[in-house]
């Protein structure tokens, strides 16, 4: 579906917050633009984002057309043990995609 | 009985042309619906946006709450001058390290962007940035 880049720090320690950066390759068509024929280009955006760490919520986000194309997101996570970070995206067609990243504490 | 022709033309024009941007009143209503009767104060939350924006298609935005007295439930971002005033909603879960997020947004025109933080204790905090946009996000 879409290409996702996830960046987690190399070194992480328990109970120490760290930042996760996500870059999603998506046009985020706003539904406000028109093509050469004057027809509105239908809206196509990622409208929901959910990040969980072993099933526990980190961040849930709702996006609107005001989010730029190829959305970038940076947020903070705190872990108590090593686990898996799952990032789920839902687009306007109702398609969901889940990407994972391993969290290994030192 | 009959409207003067000039007025008639004006009325027709107003009826046909769709509204291009949201209005501060519209954003005010959205915020009112979000906050309800909880107190809304300035401060605590910090919205970081450039004051001068060269390209409205992609503007780095970050929003954070420093030392909240109770956990932050959600952060809502509104843009008064965009065709659709809502930008994003962020809800923080138990595994969130700090109530801060950064993303990139579109700006259709020079305007005021507002961020509202809602805390678990029910209080709401507000911050806003007035900015100038040189090249607007394309709506053509």
At a glance:
The complex is a heterodimer of chains A (106) and B (140). Chain A has 106 residues and is an all-beta fold. Helix content of chain A is 0%, strand content 49%.
Question: How does this model look, in words?
Answer:
The complex is a heterodimer of chains A (106) and B (140). Chain A has 106 residues and is an all-beta fold. Chain A has strands spanning 3-7, 18-25, 46-53, 56-63, 72-77, 83-91, 96-103. Chain A has a single domain (3-31, 41-103), classed as Immunoglobulins (Immunoglobulin-like), CATH 2.60.40.10. In chain A, strands 4-3-6-7 form a four-stranded antiparallel beta sheet, with no helix packed on it. Chain A is elongated, with a radius of gyration of 16 Å. The model of chain A has no long low-confidence stretch (mean pLDDT 94). Chain B has one domain (20-135): Sandwich (Immunoglobulin-like). In chain B, the strands form two sheets. In chain B, strands 1, 3, 5, 6, 8 and 9 form a six-stranded mixed beta sheet that branches. Chain B has a three-stranded antiparallel beta sheet with strand order 2-4-7, with no helix packed on it. Chain B starts with a helix and ends in a 5-residue tail after the last strand. In chain B, strand 8 and strand 9 form a beta hairpin. Mean pLDDT of chain B is 87; it is low at 10-18. Chain A binds chain B through residues 17-19, 30, 32-34, 52-53, 56-69, 71-79, and chain B through 57-59, 62, 79, 82-84, 86-107, 138-140.
């Amino acid at each position: 579906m879409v290409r996702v880049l996830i960046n987690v720090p190399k070194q992480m320690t328990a109970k120490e917050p760290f930042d996760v950066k996500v870059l999603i390759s998506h046009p985020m068509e706003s539904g406000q633009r028109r093509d050469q024929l004057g027809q509105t280009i239908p809206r196509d955006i990622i409208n929901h984002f959910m990040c969980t760490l072993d099933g526990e919520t980190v961040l849930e986000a709702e996006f609107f057309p005001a989010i730029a194309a190829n959305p970038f997101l940076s947020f903070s996570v705190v872990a108590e043990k090593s686990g898996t970070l799952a990032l789920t995206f839902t687009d306007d067609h109702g398609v969901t995609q889940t990407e994972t990243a391993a969290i290994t504490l030192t | 009985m009959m409207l003067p022709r000039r007025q008639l033309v004006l009325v027709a024009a107003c009826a046909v042309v769709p509204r291009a941007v949201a209005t501060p009143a519209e954003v005010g209503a959205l915020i009112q619906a979000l906050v309800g009767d909880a107190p809304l104060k300035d401060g605590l939350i910090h919205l970081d946006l450039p004051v001068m924006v060269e390209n409205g298609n992609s503007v780095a935005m970050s929003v954070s709450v420093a030392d909240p007295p109770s956990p932050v439930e959600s952060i809502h971002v509104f843009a008064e001058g965009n065709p659709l005033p809502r930008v994003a909603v962020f809800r923080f879960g138990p595994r969130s390290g700090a109530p801060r997020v950064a993303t990139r947004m579109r700006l259709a025109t020079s305007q005021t962007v507002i961020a509202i933080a809602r805390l678990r204790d029910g209080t709401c905090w507000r911050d806003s940035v007035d900015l100038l946009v040189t090249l607007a996000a394309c709506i053509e």
